[in-house]
Automatic annotation (TrEMBL):
Binds 1 FAD per subunit. It comes from Pradoshia eiseniae. This is Dihydrolipoyl dehydrogenase. Residues 344-452 form the Pyridine nucleotide-disulphide oxidoreductase dimerisation domain. Its EC number is 1.8.1.4.
Amino acid sequence: MEKKQTDTVVIGAGPGGYVAAIRASQLGQKVIVIEKEYIGGVCLNVGCIPSKALITASHHYHQAQHFDVFGLSIPQVDVDFSKVQEYKEGVVNRLTSGVGTLLKGNKVEVVKGTATFQDGNTIKVETAEGEQVIQFKDAIIATGSRPVELPTMKFSTRIIDSTGALNLSEIPESLVVVGGGVIGIELAGVYANFGTKVTILEGGKDILGGIDGKMTSIVKRGLKKKGANVTIGVFVKSAEEKDGRAEVIYEEKGEEKTITADYVLVSVGRKPNTDKLGLENTGVQLTDRGLVQVDSQCRTNVANLYAIGDIIAGPQLAHKASYEAKVAAEAIAGMPSVIDHVCIPAVVFSEPEIAIVGHTAASAKEAGIDATETKFPFAANGRAIALNETDGFVQLVTNKDSGVLIGAQIIGPSASDLIGELTVAIESSLTADDLALTIHAHPTLGEMIMETAEVAIGHPIHIVK
């Protein structure tokens, strides 16, 4: 049995783990990162990155079929899905190999295997070459999450999770998506663009729970234009394979219904990977949901053990995990780093894109803040009109008394890029006046931030007050 000693061990090499390992090494620590499956984690391999590659390919395919508005005629648009998958894999491989290079360049040792805590200073790793024992001073747990599997919808060849949906070898003729959350809506959009007959079954009052209904209505309208059927307020009882297809039984308004499709994508949430780590051998406290409890430095109740990302409270976002990774690594080095962000942006890569940060008008009211909500439509922006993408709006939420920006919501093209400026504005306590007085280049989509701020302070130029 091989034995090793290190200063800091990181479990998991996803966007939390590999960032933690690199930052810890930069701060002079000897670091080992343990990864049982993918360098880059779920995000780079079977999550954020490959899904965006497929979203991009499907968007171009759908656009190419409607280029006549620009005076362009393409007689026939074909798709070779094997080449689409090759493109996706190329994107993934480029990024994961880049992470490997970064780890090597920062002198981080990578151990491929499954880690189990023996105690608060020892980890056993099952590798392909045999067992290793690693003794450490500090550990950062960054093991991420996995899709929830329901007893009534067991994963199989035809009943798949998000990973399965990303790796299909063919474009299905029909697809049922159980769950209208972010992952479900993004992947439903991919296959709707490619011509699949998509049915979305959502149990809640609307898709994309928690997002403004003015935004979700635009996304639903876009899906329906592509032939997708969005059904909300249903209870999905079961899904099973039958005769080479998948059958779903659900209840809608008290009536039991059945639908069959080539595949069923079950996307009803993710659960933290904390159940097979041997944490019971360390004394680390977990919540009823299996989340690790941490303080503002991502430190658990055991002083030398830290946790970040999907396994602690908060949104399951890669950029949140990376932020926490740096805080944990710096805390181990004795720096006074703490989680001190005001807000975390979130993006839905639907069509059109949705990006949100900070308060909504409703959440501000719940927090006892007297807030004002103002918006500006993409339809009044020259760049959006030239792009022929005019659905959506920029919406700002400001403190009524001070004018300070406390929240923002965008739905429209490039919303994911535009939200960065507004995140900085909120973190910096900028006011609507500050944004209105900042000159934005013309013609750009970013101008709408300035235009919305002008609405907020009472003198809009390009819409009637």
